[in-house]
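Internal QA ticket QA-208
Title: Verify multi-chain structure generation after dependency bump
Assignee: T.L.

Test input:
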Amino acid sequence: MGTNVEFLFGLLLFAAAGVAMILGGLLLGKLIRPKAPQSEKGAAYECGEPAVGSGWVQYDLRFYVVALVFVIFDVEIMLLWPWAVVFKQGGAAALWDLLFFFGVIVVGFLFLWRFGYLDWVRSVSGQVPRNEDDQN
Amino acid sequence: MELFSQHILSWIIFTPIVGAALCLILPTRWSRTLAMAASLITLLLCISLYATYGPAAADTPEARQEVFGVQYGDMKHVERASWITGEKFAIEYYLGVDGLSFPLVVLTGVITFLSCWASFTVKKAIKGYYILFLLLETGMLGVFLSLDFFLFYVFWEVMLLPMYFLIGVWGGPRKEYAAIKFFIYTLAGSVLMLVAIVACYFFSASALGGRGTFDIVQLSTNQSILQKFSDPHTLLLGFRFAPFMFLLFAIGFAIKVPTFPFHTWLPDAHVEAPTPISMILAGILLKMGAYGFFRIAYPIFPTVAREFAWFIAAIGVISIIYGALCAMAQTDFKKLVAYSSISHMGYVILGLAILNKTGFQGAMFQVLAHGISSPMCFFLVGVIYERAHHREINRFGGLWLTMPRYSSLATVGFFASLGLPALCGFIGEVYVLLGTFRAKDTFDWAVPMAVIAALGAILTAGYILWMIQRVYLGPAKDEYKGFPDANRNEIGILVPLAALCLLMGILPTHTVFNFMNGTLDLLQEKIVASAGIVGHLASSIGM
Amino acid sequence: MWCASIGYWLPSGNDLMRVGPDLALIAAIVLILLTTMVTGRRALATAVIVMLGLTAGFLLNWNAGVWVSHHGPDTILEPVPASMIIVDGFTVYFRFLLLIFLAGVTSFWLLGANRQEKDSPEFFTLLLGSAVGMSLMVSTLNLLMIVVAMELASLPSYALAAFDRNSRKGAEAAVKYVIFGSITAATMVYGVSLLYGLFGTLNLAEIAQQMPFVLAEHGRTPLFYLAILAFAVGVGFKISAVPFHFWCPDVFEGARVEVTMWLSVASKAAGLCLLLRVMQTLAAGPTGAVGEYVGPIAGAIGLFAALTCFVGNLSAYRQTSVKRLLAYSSIAHAGYMLMLGAILLRPELSEGAWTAIIAYLLIYMFMNLGAFGVTALVEHYSGSDHIEQFNGLGRRAPWLAVAMAVCLFSLVGLPPLGGFLAKWWLLWALADGGGWLWALVIWACLNTAFSLFYYARIIKHMFLTEDTREKMRVPMSGVAIVQLCAVVLILTGTILAAPIRTAATRYAQGLLQSRTAETLTLTDHAPDETHESMLHH
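Actual output:
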């Protein structure tokens, strides 16, 4: 069990070193940096455009939809990369493999398109009618 | 005919189910007739077992041996078929009857039929009522007749569900509380029993080498199993096996009996249940607890029965005295009868605890006597409740003058419960007390226990006579003047019960003892022998 | 199929048939999306496609089952030691359960379709997606695949929980669910990476083989336990084992009843089966050498199982939302089933344990389908699942009430219903282990008695509480489904008890034999590079 204890000790040391690195940096900074509090320091961006209003506003949901679609295709590209590397050996079968995979995603994409989730300006008629908010 | 005679016990158990199925299919207006018919056929089938046990009436050693066999566990009408079988286990459909279960089966038939008859007061949702009623009967008969642990447990629980609904739907004002209390108490007891059943199986497996057994008879007669179970080195979770298992079983059965610390469900259930269900509850369900002690706890764990005899006897005596005192304090008529049940069942436990033949016979007789007298008392209360719509003892008075027929039958019932000589309650109590005195050489505590228990008889006389005085005697009160006397239905139910009370009181040997003593004696000898206490107990054998 | 000519492994058509049920579900998803684009949102059209997909899945699964029973387990996507997907008897069995349950959920969704027609395509896309994930969870021993499958099962579940877009409770529940889910999933991935670091392989069967050597030589037992613990966090979340059950109440109450039904039964069953499979595999390492390392894991599982069923029962006690109550009851049942995990680590007991789990899952599914089905019908009718809505159901809808009573009593575990038999085999398997497992037996029994309290409360409201409302109009098909469940429960408790036990035993034996065969192949195949180097260090 000696090795276990040693191992545990090593782990502990490692963790302690990790914590020390971060805390030490912060502490050091706190000690040696000059203090010049200004109102601008509290702003969201110290340089560039002055911020207007609070940061806690609700972003338009359309950003999220677009972001999600982007992530999906981004991941898909990632999967395409290894496929492309071995494509030559795989031949036709590899092509079918990928077309199946890509096809499923495209169907999903078409679905979004068809129901107007990709339109930046959506017509009200395209939306699903909703019931009144009944939960309060 | 072959099919019938070979499977008479299955017919007894499943006739009510057939009746229930017919009730479900046929229109509501036939439900009552069907239920009456089904319970009557079941009763006749139960009585037909007399063909087997009739010869025992001759009361000669040969006749006894012929009927009861040469050792405990010789069953009649055995039906065995494998139900669920695997490499490691065999659950059987295993039925059989002996001198222990035969009287109880007949009692079940009689009381169920009479309470089905008494159900004419039930007006609400009668289809559901009779279906559940018949399911209940199946459950009760199954418990008394099954000899496989698994099957026993299934029937034990089958009886639980209908009872819950019968109390909960057709009961009095606090029915919901009473029903769930009954349900939880019984289920708590039975899951403990389940643990014990599984444990018995696995430990019997190690005793037999290989497969264990659910066979109740084998568990209680096989020497290597008994030795393994009673061996102080057999441990489960660090506890000695036999006392631990005995405790689990005993709690399950004690809840059903009910004995002192586990009795609180009973007054509630009885008071809220409709009259016919109270009759079944008092007449049969309580007997299952006693039957469980006789059939399972005592034969399988004889050493524990011996070791903790003082404790069991003490519980019995406390139940007698405590039940009687509580009964005395009641002003609700039905509650009084309910507490008197606790007191009377205390004698059963005491009779069991002392482990001699007189005690066993007395305990079993008490079981049957109480099975007749307490349904009668509950029905008597029901009759008056139907008319007065209250059960306050202090508001009654002078009923004898307005309802002479009813009141004279009532006296028979309550005096039987009191234990008046020449009525059934007397025999059981006397046997138990005699047996307890006789056990003085075996147990130091026997005499004090007997003395205290005898005191209970005086208390019983006290509360019953006081109640009779307040309810039936005295000048007739105006508010009860117009009450009709017992009608034909009521007389029809009360007269057979009263007759049985008298018969069992006057001719106990010919009506009861002849048909069960053979098995009881074999059982007692077996327990004494396997408990390894041949000395004193053997000398106090017999009556 | 290994194509030596191209040095590239490709699944043959035959192999694809083994994962046919999953493919059928994926095809159904694609078809739903395509159809909806053409015809617009229609509940019935969607449901027809779903049912077609389920039927196809059922037939393909049947086919796979026949194949497996002839050829033994199939390992797909790569040859044996590092196989990504395993299709064996248990996979096939679990898929059958999943497909039947899906059919049930679909039916109840349709019965309430008048108010949710527009959402059907999305609902079924998500539902089938998570079903594919669950199916994969149970058909793999590859750690990476486990992670992917669990995520595939979880992500649609988050969306399903928030499916009622107008319900604030639903939204809140979904956020909690996502956060809880992500954290536990991250922890699990951490555990997986530790395991990989320790053993140099992602295949659990190989890990089991190497475990005693690696751990003994390098003294890395604490790290191993840390990895297992982190892994268990993810699985524990899925089966909502204490202390990872906090997401449960809100999600189950906030979601629609069909979703609750799905999450509390299928999702939990999948997590459980995954865990049991993992335990079984870990225990199947070199004979005699593994016990030392997995023993503490068995104890921990037993402890958490005991806690889980107790907390489930305790929390169910005061609920007034029937959905929530049933959901808690499913936590309790997960606890009972989890107890079997403790004995799977002992090879001599594993046959009993698998038999018990196979029987339990089957009966458990019918009990919950029935109970949630009645709740769904009541909610569709009255718009709420509050327990008061069940008042007088015995009179207002007698057939519904009787079916509910049967299911509830079966959930308690009363004979002569299937639930009793299920619990009986479970206790049996535990008791067979003897020793400290007796404590679990007693604990499970006491919990059973305790659980009666809350099940009986619904019974009380249905039969004992008077109610003057008019009779309930319920669709006949809904009544038929719940009645079917009740009949199945009565039959499995009585005349079908023996056949079910026999079938389950045979299934379990087949499973274990094939498992042994697999282990053998593995030892034949071994040792690859990493293994070798570990051994000779």
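Spot checks passed. Chain B has a mean pLDDT of 86.
Status: verified.
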